[in-house]
Write a structure and sequence with these properties.
The protein is mostly beta strands. It is built from two helices and 18 strands. It has helices at 5-14, 207-220; strands at 20-27, 34-46, 55-66, 70-76, 87-94, 100-103, 115-120, 122-123, 143-149, 152-153, 161-164, 169-173, 178-185, 191-193, 197-198, 223-227, 230-234, 240-247. Strands 9, 10, 11, 12, 13, 14, 15, 16, 17 and 18 form a ten-stranded antiparallel beta sheet that branches. The chain is globular, with a radius of gyration of 22 Å. The chain starts with a helix and ends with a strand.
Length: 249
């Protein structure tokens, strides 16, 4: 049965708006620690008019410290956007006194659906550009449970974790098999894992996919960051490979 034009219009009008969650991760490549109490924020802006200030449609922020990655989630209804309009994501990192520290320097298009977006920021000023001074011994002791693969959450039932010792060795679980490897973690943020070994048991998915991601990340890791009970492994370009959460041994 076909609806009359009026009933069809009323039916469409009665449909609830479909909001989209946009998970935004902010990073920077400079080896600079972010002071405690700093704020990472992301705004979804309507930048359709070049002759008018951008209008923020949604905004999210989080208090951060240490080093990137920083993460917030924005919620917006893409159905209410002008199909001819332009919409962008703008990220800022501000120091505790409100001074702008890092920001985006290029157009980052806002997605029209649920999505994960990584934004690279550049330094604008603020705190002096002091090198990162990490403490490699802070890796030793906790059980580092896998929390993210790239910017996606690790499987909820994953048993993947790493344990670091003071002899330069890594032990743990890659998601299916036990693993072992050597490592070097320097105070300037450099990281390198040596050739690894593991048992050879087969497991059902998603454990095998998680394991492949862990071994691939250890092979590619060239940097590390520590903050907010999270340990992050980065590739040579500063992109996030794995994120681990501090847990009891």
């Amino acid at each position: 049965m076909r609806l009359s034009p009026l009933l069809a219009a009323l039916s469409v009008a009665a449909m609830p708006a479909l909001a989209a969650d946009i998970a935004v991760t902010g990073i920077y490549l400079e080896r600079i620690a972010t002071p405690p109490g700093s704020t990472f924020s992301v705004a979804l802006q309507d930048v359709s008019r070049a002759d008018a200030p951008a209008v923020a449609r949604a905004r999210a922020e989080a208090t951060v410290a240490g080093g990137p990655p920083f993460r917030v989630v924005l919620t917006d209804d893409p159905q209410t956007r002008d199909p001819q309009g332009r919409y962008a994501l703008r990220a800022e990192l501000r120091l505790p006194d409100g001074a702008l520290f890092f920001t985006t320097d290029s157009f980052v298009e806002a997605p029209g659906e649920n999505a994960e977006v990584e934004i690279r920021m550049i330094r604008t000023g603020g705190a002096p550009a002091e090198p990162v001074s990490l403490k490699p011994w802070d890796l030793i002791g906790p059980r580092w449970a896998l929390a993210q693969i790239g910017h996606l959450p690790a499987p909820a039932d994953s048993k993947a974790h790493l344990l670091f010792d003071d002899a330069g060795r890594i032990a743990g679980d890659a998601g299916c098999n036990r693993l072992g490897a050597s490592y070097l973690a320097r105070p300037d943020g450099a990281f390198l894992a040596g050739p690894g070994m593991s048992t050879m048991m087969a497991c059902p998915e998603p454990a095998m996919s998680t394991e492949r991601a862990v071994f691939d990340a250890l092979d590619r890791a060239r940097g590390w960051r520590l903050g907010d009970d999270r340990m992050t492994l980065l590739d040579g370009d500063g992109a996030v490979l794995l994120v681990f959460a501090r847990a009891e041994p």
